[in-house]
Amino acid sequence: MICTTLIDSDALQRHLGEPDWVIFDCRHDLAQPDAGELAYRRAHLPGAQFMHLDRDLAAPLTGNNGRHPLPAPETFARKLASCGVDSGKQVVAYDDAGGMVAARLWWMLRWLGHDAVAVLNGGWSQWVAEKRPVSSDLVTPTASRFNARVRAMAVNVDQVLSHVREKDDTMTIVDARGPDRFRGENESMDPVGGHIPGAINRSFRDNLGADGCFKPDAVLREDFARVIGQRNATDIVHQCGSGVSACHNILAMEAAGLRGSRLYPGSWSEWCIDPSRPVAKGECG
Predict the structure, then answer these.
(1) What percent of the chain clears pLDDT 70, i.e. is strictly above it?
(2) Are the CB atoms for 239 and 196 separated by under 8 Å?
């Protein structure tokens, strides 16, 4: 049996050290981009390798492609192969941000056709609180061969713009940012505040309980039913500031059995660069 959404700490600890399991530490601080890797070098789950959000899970910035554009599939496939990931490996990702960055890695592996990937529920914080084993040893992986099979799990800015202009009902945009930024208030990351017209707000933080773990599947299913109504999951397109926390909403929907939603990777940071694209403010619009 493979793990395809979430895995708990008990289950992961049972598989530590197994050659067919690959663990990635995805800790990252947007304000201090080196902090996650420094923390990894001090201590991490035994056998874990490090994935950097800016270097490994994103492509270089061009000035018009958002803050965390997707890398080319072949580039990310080479990175995975160098880390020993192949079609027979179970991958687990974790972070210290409720799964926000780990979910990006989870989504990217699925994007390239690899289903055996899960996010550690509770992440680093819960692992440490439970006094589970940690290590400062750095891993030297044996390179493997990763065959990417790119899936149609993403939409581009032109598709979103066409949807906004035509106001069709084949796409519903769900914005994973906090409510204040969605309304256009307290914008701290991007030059323009607001949201894509017609978008619905569902902060990724609402996927978590007070303990920092994902809510039970049934609760998530009820929560998203209130957000998307009777719409099909396959009509949902998730976005956020830069295509990272939106993956958290995709993961939550998948865990809840609402499968097939897609990602707009460029998200708000790409959308708002071009002043010709419409901007809405307030609760909805």
Answers:
(1) 99
(2) yes
Identify the active-site residue in 26, 83, 240, 247: 240
Q: Quote the mean pLDDT of the chain.
A: 96
pLDDT given at position 169: 86
Q: Are 206 and 223 in contact (CB under 8 A)?
A: yes
Structure tokens at 252: 């939550």
- 240 has catalytic annotation: yes
Q: Averaged over 22-36, what is the pLDDT?
A: 96
Of 196, 168, 167, the residue nearest 183 (C-alpha): 196
What CA–CA distance (Å, rounded) separates 245 from 57? 13
DSSP letters, 261-272, are: -EE-TTHHHHHT
Structural domains present in the chain: 6-129 (3.40.250.10), 157-271 (3.40.250.10)
Query: Residue 208: beta bridge partners?
Result: 214
Does the pTM of the predicted model rise above 0.85? Answer: yes
Task: With beta carbons less than 8 A apart as the criterion, state whether 282 and 256 touch.
Answer: no
Residue 74 has pLDDT above 70, yes or no: yes
**The pLDDT value given to residue 285:** 52
